[in-house]
Amino acid sequence: MPYRGRFAPSPTGPLHLGSLIAAIASYLDARHSNGSWLVRIEDLDPPREDRGAADSILYSLQCHGLHWDENVLYQHTRNSAYNAALISLADRGHLFRCGCNRITLSKSGACLDNCRTSQTTISDPTAIRIRVPLDQDIFFKDRLQGPAYSPLGQSLTDFVVRRRDELYAYQLAVVVDDAEQSITHVLRGSDLLDSTPRQIFLQQRLALATPSYCHLPVITTKQGQKFSKQNHAPALDNSKASSNLRSALRFLHQCEPPATLASVEQLLAYAIEHWSLERVPAILSMPAANIGLST
Length: 295
Ligand SMILES: [Zn+2]
Prior knowledge:
With 295 residues, the chain is α/β, with parallel strands linked by helices. The chain has two domains: 4-75 and 217-291, HUPs (Rossmann fold), CATH 3.40.50; 79-171, Rossmann fold (3-Layer(aba) Sandwich). Helices cover 29% and strands 17% of the residues. α1 (17-32) links the parallel β1 and β2 (36-41). α1 (17-32) crosses α7 and α1 packs across α8. The N and C termini lie far apart (42 Å). The relative contact order is 0.18. It binds zinc ion (ZN).
């Protein structure tokens, strides 16, 4: 199968160094393998999104020389595909309506009522959950973090696939879109490691292929918080693209490009040729201070 990788940001703010690291790792891994690299905008939750953030992210990627193949896929255009996946699951009896509210849900968000035995319809304004058998295990081998095991049926019973507000759940959308884009390799931040067993379970239920997964360390502040808009991660300065790329490569422990390479095109050509996943630290997070940045 030809290699197809992707970068899939949520447009909640401008591109910052944390998201650039995930973008460049997935880009280099794809290009080093002569593969395609696609971009998907995960604009599934319009109230949480900034107007203009998607365009700003795409513009920043271009400024950093990260040019994608094919058309950008926007999740807000994909409701009919998500609905088709729900219908396919419902037809085989895998879904049920859950009318629980914050008071009746457990702390972890599990449905404690008898919703599981209620009849499935997908037109009512209730949350829709997928049945997870109690003995459901998920195993996968992460290319960086190693073998992973999740007792999914014990830890996360019957998770939500469509929310009460009728928005499709992130896990369902990602699985349907990775299949639509024929993604073979996913490289993303370790903050999504927890989501992977649910995504693999959905792939199995929908008879979709499971891509290879690789969860990268996420960059954190001195206090150990993930870089994000909420933590005031600074937007990348597009006029310093070469310097930003060098920071991202340093974070990923890649060969330092010679100082004579100045343009983003030269830096990326060097980085593609020398890309080595073995050099990336197999840890979940690393402070920005480790690469000489103050936060
Ligand atoms: Zn319930």
